[in-house]
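One-letter codes give the sequence; each number marks local geometry. A record appears below:


***
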Amino acid sequence: MKTSLTWLNEYLNHEMDLNPESISDLAEKVERTSVEIDSNTTIAQEQDGLVVAKVLSVEPHPDSDHMVITQIDAGEDEPIQIVTGAPNVAEGQMVILAKVGAHIINHENGELIELKAVKLRGESSYGMLVALQEIGFSDKIAPKDFEEGIYIFGQEEDLTPGDDAIVALGMNEPVLDTDLTPNRADMLSMIGTAYEFGAMLGKKVIVPDFDLVEYENEAANQVNVYIDDQELVSKYALRVVNNVTVKDSPLWLQKRLWNAGMRPINNIVDITNYMMLTYGQPLHAFDLDKLNGRDLHIRRATADEQMVTLDGEKRKLRVGADIVISADSEALMLAGVMGGVSSEIDENTKNIIIESAIFNPSLIRATARRHNLHSEASARFERGLNWDATFNTLDHAASLVDALAEGQVAHGRIVAINNERTDTHLTLSTTRVNKVLGTSLTTDEIASIFDQLAFTYEKNDDVLTVIVPARRGDISIEADLIEEVARLYGYDNLPVTLPYGPTTPGKLSKQQRQIRASRRIMESLGLNQAISYVLTSPEKAQLFAENQNDGMVTLDYPMSSDRTTARQNLLSGLIDDVVYNVSRSVQNIALYEQGRIFITNEINAQPSEIEHIAGVLTGNIINSSWQKNKQENAVDFYDVKGIVESYLAQIGTTDIYYVATERHSNMHPGQTADIFIGDEYIGFVGQIHPNITKKQKLAPVFGFELNLFSVFNHIVENVQFNPISRFPQISRDAAILIDKTVPNGEIYTSILETAGEHLVDVTVFDLYMGPNLPEDKKSLAYTLTYQDSDGTLLETDVNTDFEHIMSELQSKFNAEIR
């Protein structure tokens, strides 16, 4: 919130020193004690040479149909001639003059420019009459559009020609822009901020006073209020003001608004915004004569209901969710968010209704998010309002309408609902405060801090019973009070001590170590890590999901239509990454991703988060050359299966086997296998279905996805690593003739089971089926490698073992040794 320190000073019994050094010290104190400060600025930066001036005369330019020649009284001995094209300049006006040598802002590019005397169509001009946008005001806070012309002071302002315009406009007022946390709703008002600054600086707060005069007209005879649903609103009241005159606000009010970052509109709207900034209580004004009826209803939106809000947007209301204020059946406003154009205050308005309320904050928050309509009012309703300020703000606003718009406040405040607030009483002992903060404060010292905060309390020995004021909705438990003591005492003043008791070294958990090991293994196998979006579309979320009957986790308020659902697999995100790379001429891709998927089996239940790891390969394993073409180098099922096998072996699992499957609808039915460790399913590996890759114009893509929780359950903890032998190896080759029906795996297993302790490797290096062999036979050739870790093997030992293996193959498989 932008806080003008000049305005804030009005609510403190001793004004703050506003010289630049003191303001910097104050900003630092606020940051250390309360909230962060985004900026410490004024509207005036390097502008100068700006004075208040009076237009003495206006004459047509002899050589222009849109420019005029004016004589300006700038408080000097002689009038100054100014040639201007401002469409709204007139004799007798008090305006802003930028004199020769002045520095103003170029409205188009924001650059600082210096004014010089010029001739315009042959007539000399010694300065420039300016709009606010030309001296540093943004379009968001300037009360008139730039095209409407120069800024004109009201005739009632106490200004004389030659006055410093920067001072007159409040451009030199220091403004602290505070970055409020959601819990500090009290500082969304000047009064609440005054209490905070007063507590830090030891100053008392002066609450503004006002006189409200009611006239003979009865408010109850002009409007009725009905609450159709008690859950929508806790407090609601109206004031009726008759015979108002809508016009520009006086300068003092405009200054307060634009220094707070708000644009002045007219005196009625400006009063409601001024009161919101003062007390933190949003108000809204309706044109009473524009209502279809005099019965106002606070209700939920009905089916197919629409309205046009003040920003000009036509909005379809959500049935049963949006709160509306309606006159009979016509929706006048989105309660707590924004008013509607049908009852907008304009220059013809004569009778108005001002409302003040506390609406259901959850419903206001949902409406603001649903319509993407976050207003100053909704920000305050969402965070919580000062329960005690609702009706006081309304009465103060009515009194200002009487003073600034010549209105007549109708007799009686119309109160539709006024739920009572229960005071929060919290007890706090001195012993508890000192134990938590490590201090040695006395009860009186703690009590003095609550005096600074203007909290009411009762003291009984070393126990304080604190009554939390309505403006501090963020305080509800003892710890909140201790925090108030700590920050006002000063975090820098808290004693510094070493921790006591046993300490433990920080380290990663077992699961974290295993996840990091998984990533290192994948990278050692040649895969690059990819990080995809957790949120995706419903179709992609379930594209490779194991069980598509599991419930999807969807967002109520997604940022975009393609980021609505939490993912249930990692492969779909990796395929998006492949598409992204291929579209940029990267053909050979090896990626992996480790992350969580989200599954829920019950409506509104907390989803299960499961760690997965997945990978994809496409393109060529090695670049093609004159020796090998692309087709020979292209990745295949066995390449991706080899990566999975190597990973599972290095992570420390055993008893792994693969089962061919066709159950994955988005995987190739002839090149996909489920992966098991023992009896537990851990994932799958195979080729992405060609129907998917062809749509994306991709080469064949192979991938895998594993459940890391399942993998980790089977890691063998007592893995033993043996040293590499220093002694030579001995190899023997064997070719056997065997039935075609006998798989290689059975022969491989038989060799390992039959061999002695020195066999270290078995490799099949040839398969032959063709001429010179019976039709039902095949020839397999193996290399058996022997090695001893403790010494050099003898030929006799190797020969004996080799002959024993061959004999076993002959007897078990009826093999013929060739």
Summary: The domain at 214-418 is CATH 3.50.40.10 (Phenylalanyl-tRNA Synthetase; Chain B, domain 3). The first helix runs from residue 5 to 8. The longest strand covers residues 48-60. The two ends are 91 Å apart (CA to CA).
